[in-house]
């Protein structure tokens, strides 16, 4: 059943779907300056609105994605796409910053379909190929992140920035039609619990599995430092080079390295310990910020740093997904929910505090914040959780 349901074309469709939908939550980053000018608000307020999108996504992950363990996942995906279309249209017509802020929150909440698709792909994939399949689908997710920034930045340099959200709504509507015909039907027809009971099990899973907590913390750190950079880049480009949203969007294309590497990282996660791959992600992200801090005044430094940062983020994303999806297939959506909640809480706080540090201390303050967050990540990965694992083994014996 699994091999038939998840052939190469189906995996590609899932990757494309993840790309199109996840793009919604990143459109704001290259056009923050344009939105601030349109509504005549400060950069700090726009940073808070960007945080609302990430927070909405985080709470959608916590409260909606776990439903994938108890309802028909195909139906859930299709319904979330309809809500994502409505949210994008609200952002398109928003007459003021308050309506746009509400739309941004709803965009975050309703754009969680990729996080239902990811564990669904992991469930359908043959066990020995799970890392590779997840790497392929996650590469689609990263494409969505990259192209969202590029499309948003470039379009906003030629059209009113609101057009970005109209185009997003149209693309998701077309995707809905394709998925209605092609997305595999959920082979699980009976679920033994209801939503309330299932939600109550989430804290117990967090308590039971230290590896789940470790993955959530690692995701918090790596996506947090990624968003510290992307949330402040457009302001840095304005200050340093007198560039705008178009250039910020074009620089996002450099992350294609991470897209190309995702399937390879997935195979590495199947072959080696995910902990090793995650450690590489922390190291690469740290190197990226050292490059930004020392050589960021040169465009070549920014280019190299962006490539290294996106690789570091992708190393952590794929390896963490691989290790949590192997714990218990019956709870895969809940594991993904906890992990991605931590991931996007890091993203939300990274966007907010990155903007604050930019306003207060400039580029060196932004880089310093990221290095501090990464040091927390190193401590958790190499000291705290290994010590906890040794203590657990000792207690069991």
Query: Number of helical runs?
Result: 16
Strand content: under 5%
pLDDT average, as an integer?
A: 86
Topology-level CATH name: Growth Hormone, Chain: A
Outline type = globular
* Poorly predicted ranges: none
Helical percent range? Answer: over 70%
CATH homologous superfamily placement: MFS general substrate transporter like domains
CATH architectural grouping: Up-down Bundle
The biggest beta sheet reads:
none
Termini Cα gap: 40 Å
How many discrete structural domains?
1
- Series of secondary-structure elements, N-terminal to C-terminal: HHHHHHHHHHHHHHHH
Structural class: mainly alpha
Top-tier CATH class: Mainly Alpha
Number of strands: 0
Over the alpha carbons, how many angstroms does the gyration radius reach? Answer: 20 Å
What does this molecule look like?
By secondary structure, the protein is mainly α. It has one domain (about 1-185, about 200-395): MFS general substrate transporter like domains (Growth Hormone, Chain: A, Up-down Bundle). It has 16 helices and no strands. The protein has helices spanning about 1-5, 10-20, 30-40, 45-65, 75-95, 95-110, 115-125, 130-155, 165-180, 195-210, 210-240, 245-250, 255-270, 275-295, 300-325, 330-395. The mean pLDDT is about 85. It is found in: Cell membrane. Keywords: Membrane, Transmembrane, Transmembrane helix, Transport.
Summarize it:
The chain is mainly α. It has helices spanning 2-5, 8-22, 32-39, 43-63, 73-93, 97-110, 113-124, 130-156, 163-182, 195-208, 210-241, 245-252, 256-271, 274-295, 299-325, 332-396.
